[in-house]
Write a structure and sequence with these properties.
mainly alpha; 77% helix
Length: 359
Amino acid sequence: MISALAFGFADIYFPLKNYSFERLHIFLFNLCTGGTIILYYTEENKKMSITVRVFFTSSLIYTLSAFFELYPVTIIASFFLFGIAEKVRIKKFSFFPWNFFKKQTPVSEKFHQASLLCLSIAVIMGSAVILNNEYLNLVNIEKLKLNTFFLGFSFPLSLISLSVIFLMLNNIDQALTGIIKEICFWTLNLGVIIFFGFILFEKLIPQIFITIALFMAVLTVFFLHKKHAENIQQKQFLSSGIGFLAAASITGMIYIFMEMSRGYDPVKVKWILHLHVFASLYGWNLCGLAVICRFNDFPIKINSRSLIFVHWMTAVALAPLGVFYGTFAVLAVAGYVFIIFAIFFSKSYSDFATTDLIN
């Protein structure tokens, strides 16, 4: 995660003529760490299994080969990634996602299976784009590039975070709330898929309507979580994460409006795009992954409010400023080092209780 953020600034300060550090930036976070954590969480083992370790190794090979444009290696690695992700998904759920259409299935499980399914699809789509652009040239669309499909690797992380959020809402029995949760599930899933299609075909006005629908769904999730989730430490981090997701939705809408305006200059509005990426990737997604990794350790011995404040300052201030000023880039990386070590390596209160018993 730390190296992913560092590579996010590398294109700006250490540009290479033939290579894009952005691929390392996105794939290291979304695929290598994010995909691995999703599988680890799904298997429910205390330690990473051999299956998850092979996925992690294959994801590193995929990432590095895509960066160095060794595409035959990337395609071979994608078969391993797809096979492993599907193996874990089918073992946990089923080959066909029947649960999506079953009323009695908790929405948290639906989001969980959707996360695994989207991870598999993202890998296949990435390889299909490489095959088309590098070898077959069957489809010629301006946006049909591997870098455009970064969204596909971010979506599984969002879905697994939403799964944990809705897991905290499973105890709600009201019929109306159940309907609202189902609507949120389908709106968020279908909305992102349709939105991605509009990006691919560069349809700006429909993007606005879909973004508004997604934003309303995010607000609904926030109010459900705020009202019904148990007031525990995980809730603070997940509430912060939903805040980051809302910020990403708002900045996304602003960017689309800027694209539609007269005199649109991609260079002049690049700052809002960076703010959108950092809020989504290193804000929202990091909150979800952190809660998943420490799922059985809460409560952990940290000052949650102070850490959340530092997280927001780093994601929406230091990191976006780091795109333009090198000093802030260094501070942003340092801030993330602090945040990640605080969240992932802080002691659990249960550890202290065990130590007291031993002593």
